[in-house]
Sequence to fold (756 residues):
Amino acid sequence: MNTGRLLGVWAFTGLLISACNNPRKHATTDSLAIRQQYAGSPVLTAAESLEKIQVENGFSVQLVAAEPMVIVPVAMTFDERGRLWVAEMTGYMPDTVGTGEDARNGQIVILEDTTGDGAMDKRTVFLDSLVLPRALCIVGNGILVAEPPKLWYYAFDGDRPGKKTLVDSLYTVGGNVEHQPNGLVRAMDNWIYNAKSDKRYRFDRGRWLKEDTHFRGQWGISQDNYGRLFYNNNSENLLGDYFSAGLGAGNPNQRKVDGFDENIVPDNKVYPLRPNTGVNRGYMKGVLDDSLRLVNFTAACGPLVYRGGLYGQGFEGNAFVAEPSANLIKRNILENQGYKVKGRQAYKGCEFLASTDERFRPVNLHLGPDGTMYVLDMYRGIIQHKTYLTPYLKSEIGERALTQPLNCGRIYRVVPAGVNPGPVKIEGDLVPYLKHPNGWVRDKAQQMIVDGQNRQLAPALRERLHDAAQPLAAMHALWALEGLHALTLADVLPLLRQPDATLRSQAITVLPAVMSSGNAKEIAAVLEDMMADSLQAPVATLVLPALRQKDAPAAARLLQQAWRSYPNNRVMADAVISNVKDKEAALLSDIAAWDPDTNLVIRRHLDKVLSDIANRRKSRMDDALLKEYPRGNLIFKTVCQTCHGADGEGIQSLAPPLNHSELVTGRKERLIAIVLYGLTGPVTVNGKLYKSPEINGDMPGIINNDEFSDGDIAQLLSFIRNAWGNKAEKITEKDIQLVKQKYKGRERSFTMEELK
Fold:
């Protein structure tokens, strides 16, 4: 379908006004006057909304597509021809109660620029009649599409879907629209990773593989030049991994492995250009400042590690984060410190990009084949899902008519001022593209080599592999050979002597792909050398599970070397423990015999894992509980589990445990009040203080959610009061009603002080 030139000349009006020219310095102003000033929230055309965007000096914002070319975009990817594939989540929150959210109106569309000016002028519907599609990823001659609860693979039949293959029937089981897996980023190691998920996928030798990995993030996921993953949750700027994505997840008894899910940028301040009264907790002290602007992230999402080669060296490796609640995009500067990654905000008091249009809702950021950052703007008034919608925000939506329209959506790109870059179309010989300055091009070339399974490229890849002047190209060649199943130990060993530390780390990481019983002793000797290097020791330890399958005695000897050499290193402690699934007690005994010091870091970490194992053993739920509270179990899985964990032990950075929590098993009225009206931190559970940024600062209440009856809530609370290791009196509908009567008219969350 060719819809013609809908954008017009104004599509590429660049804005040179900097979002940082005027750092926020707002005198205390009467909040009523501010609310009156911003009482309206006009729906702007794409041209008008573009004029409201301010961006860093030296950059301009260009409109790539707008309605009706694109509607409610939430995820995207490019193909090798430079065409843009978009998931349109049209059915998301049509009103404050989600009426019609199950309508089959979602689509996957292909947008194409046929004239080469950067503006999309051709729209082709690839898939329609979908319910809330949320992620996509091109693999070979087809595309992965996440349509809850399933993950499908559609082969290409031209620009139409061909054969349909079910990859995972349980892709998004559990959780609600805000808390379901998404992302589908194809990382350097040839595996596909997700946010809000502990699963990874790969198409290999004619079949789809699915494996466990670390649980990561909430919405959006990105990789850096070394295949390390970065993500976040709503209230935290940036989280990420120190090591390659596939390492360290071999022991399910570990709830947290140091070096993964690290808080990369702990500063969560945001600096909007306009008041943000339309946020879910806008009525709470500290959420908005005196000028009614948001103070901290509440909807951080869609992170992008920029690797485009177009913005200048100072921007390479920076992490950009979208904040749709505050209508802005933040820039963070990342630095490698040994094997660790640390970050800081690029500016104080201002942002890389921000808008005064309240409906500008950037929800995902992507790198394009032209080296620019693409911004997906849902252009909606409502972005908070009904499950957690507060009466305050519901009122804001009604008073300022934020529900409509539902048929908008924009895609922008951010370009250096005065530049109109065109996409790189990947064709012909793929190997030279592995040294391209644009990381998207390098990634795509590697993926096409692997998908094509052309082993005749192996000699050219080996030449690239040993070009010390191009370490990034060498890394891509390394993993391309791995994906072709053409990699040999002889290819890898020279890389371990290269001066580039990141290249050496990649060489260690890929060793399991070339490991065999015949070369295990040689690899063990290599790992022993690497273990003496404190920079490479964690990676060497994390690959020992593969060695154990080929030479168990050598792996055991090296593991002992690891914990004896680094007994007080947190990262090394967890790397060691990742090797000893169900053998933690034996390791603790060996360490205690070697050194009786109970304060050794590795001993403390082992004690924690053993305690978690014991709690989990006690907490296994029996069938009788599920039969007694089926509705409670279902609500727990869809609403509570996403933050508190399936085992009730809490999730890092999100929420404290429910298992063995005095807030759960204590007074009925207190628990009911928390669940109905919400709880704002800090929170103390079993003597431990949980506060932001360790956990999300707020738990929303569900009193205004029409999905749940008093009987449903009673079942839910009775369920969690008796699940896992908990044992407490059941809660009845009458108990729920009494608390509702007592606090009738209350809107704000409780604090721990009030609950005392």
User: Anything to note?
Assistant: Confidence is low (pLDDT under 50) at residues 1-17. The first strand starts at residue 53 and ends at 55. The two ends are 63 Å apart (CA to CA).
